[in-house]
Amino acid sequence: GGLGDVDGDVLYIGTGSVQGGKVYYFNGTDWASSDADAASTATGLLGIALDSGATSTVGVLVRGYGTLGVSTGGSNGDVLYLSTGANQITSTAPSGSGDIVRVVGYLIDSTNNIVWFNPDGSWVEIA
């Protein structure tokens, strides 16, 4: 399966461009780089870019099965979190002061980086 293989809810909004398989947040106008280091880049609407190009053309997966461009680490079935690395999700919960811990789904196929992407609306900021 390639980055275009998807089954779920896809949005074709925003004026910017994205890279396929990366995770972004919607800032009201564009899809910007997600990052669990700050609430401003971690608590909004998240999505996985389905291909590289304009979001209005390639689409962004906001819930469903999708393929990531990089490994999350971990094993099939593991809980996934928004990463402190830009545009990524990980099987390791962020643990630094000020980091945002937000469950975004589950790892389905670690070999092919396929995830069930279903970001939780709630999150916790580490003191």
How far apart, in Å, are the first and last alpha carbons? Answer: 40 Å
SSE order: EEEEEEHEEEEEEE
State the major sheet.
Answer: 9 strands, antiparallel
Given as residue ranges, the uncertain stretches (5+ residues, pLDDT < 50) are none
Structural class: mainly beta
Question: What would you say this structure looks like, in words?
Answer:
- With 127 residues, the protein is mostly beta strands.
- Helices cover 3% and strands 39% of the residues.
- The strands form three sheets. Strands 1, 3, 4, 5, 7, 8, 9, 11 and 12 form a nine-stranded antiparallel beta sheet that branches.
- Strand 8 and strand 9 (89-90) form a beta hairpin.
- The longest helix has 4 residues, at 55-58.
- The radius of gyration is 13 Å and the shape is globular.
- The termini are far apart.
Fold blueprint:
Blueprint: E1 7-11, E2 17-18, E3 23-26, E4 31-33, E5 46-49, E6 53-54, H1 55-58, E7 60-67, E8 79-82, E9 89-90, E10 100-101, E11 103-109, E12 114-117, E13 124-125
Antiparallel strand pairs: 1-7, 2-6, 3-4, 3-5, 5-7, 7-12, 8-9, 8-11, 10-13, 11-12
